[in-house]
């Protein structure tokens, strides 16, 4: 895991990569590469190299990424991105028992939105979302809402559903739980979601002047799905 021995996460990783038939393509915003506490390297360490492929960038054209374009045009490919057009993954998994490819965008919510809407390739696969009420265990990083999950958590839940194996989720979450535990022991603070802070009057940053951002905050306070 390339971390100092005192906080090494290797003992919390599976001894052997998990055997899965689903292949993940992680589309990573370049800003994620420079973050110290990233979850994607932990995810990759849990899976075989040919089942977790990471592509870094903001724009993905068919000319520059012909392999990705072919994957996006495959009818069995899924893209995990919530929205009005998305189908719950549980429903898709029941109808599609065969191995498939799933695309997951890694970045902040605004970065993921930018990548999704500015790359026409990503609107070709079937759009799916997770129907979950679980709070994120990635407590050392602030999430927009209480039920927003990190990339690793999304992948863990999605793979457990696709592979019909709940233990996959537990195995992939194990190193994330250890990471958060180590960081909290060494001075990190628990980060409540922006939704939690706003609802409880704990948000201590200046309110945005941008009307669109201000409206998003109002929706969070009023528990409206955004």
TrEMBL record:
Entry keywords, A to Z: S-adenosyl-L-methionine, Transferase, tRNA processing
Q: Does the keyword Cell membrane apply?
A: no
State the top-level EC class.
transferase
- Which residues belong to any copy of the DTW domain? 1-188
Q: Which Pfam families match?
A: DTW
GO molecular function (one): tRNA-uridine aminocarboxypropyltransferase activity
* EC number annotated for this UniProt entry: 2.5.1.25
**UniProt entry tagged with the keyword Lyase:** no
Alphabetical GO biological process terms:
tRNA processing
Q: Which reaction does it catalyse?
A: a uridine in tRNA + S-adenosyl-L-methionine = a 3-[(3S)-3-amino-3-carboxypropyl]uridine in tRNA + S-methyl-5'-thioadenosine + H(+)
InterPro entries given for it? DTW, DTWD2/TAPT
Q: Which PANTHER family match?
A: TRNA-URIDINE AMINOCARBOXYPROPYLTRANSFERASE 2
Q: Write out the similarity annotation.
A: Belongs to the TDD superfamily. DTWD2 family.
Annotated protein name in UniProt: tRNA-uridine aminocarboxypropyltransferase
Question: In which organism is this protein found?
Answer: Pachyramphus minor
Gene that encodes it: Dtwd2
